[in-house]
Protein: RNA polymerase sigma-70 factor, ECF subfamily
Organism: Niabella drilacis
Amino acid sequence: MKTEEITFIKGLKNGETLAYTRIYDLYHERLYSFVIRFVKVPELAEDILQEVFLTLWKVRERVDSEQSLQAYLYKISRNCVFKALKKNARQQQFRERIMAASGAGAKTASDEERLTWKEYENILTDAIDALPVQRRKVFKLCRDEGKTYDGVAAELGISKNTVKEHMVLATRAIKLHISKYVDFQSLLLFLVLSCM
């Protein structure tokens, strides 16, 4: 084990936020690459990493300075991925039940139902098109192309925090736009099915 890593672990165990930040900076990208292979969705991968580093902080006093910190972080990451996948599987079952109950998932959906869902998709497209140019670009790169916040930040020459802010504001604006045209229950169903 590297001397630097041992120093970070000792600092972490003593509750030093600087050591914690250095560990985050050192391992974030590696763990992101590991997590994204399983979950495929950048936003979910980032959420999982937040959980990983939160868990590390909570159990910092139990971290063994004789063991590899990297191996320990991968173990936490694996557990957080399994937890997230299990949760998402339950949500997928929930979405399928909603679709079945609403008739949206039926193979024999009526022309009226298909027309309604097409209308919702058009409203969503209009909402995205109404975003300011940079915000729309960020949203499409993250959502449609599956790029990471870091990747989008590098591509557009902006900070990762700016990318996050654009995504929050874009999602808020899209939901607000959709709510003008769709009643609350239909909006909820559409948002659940669209995984927004």
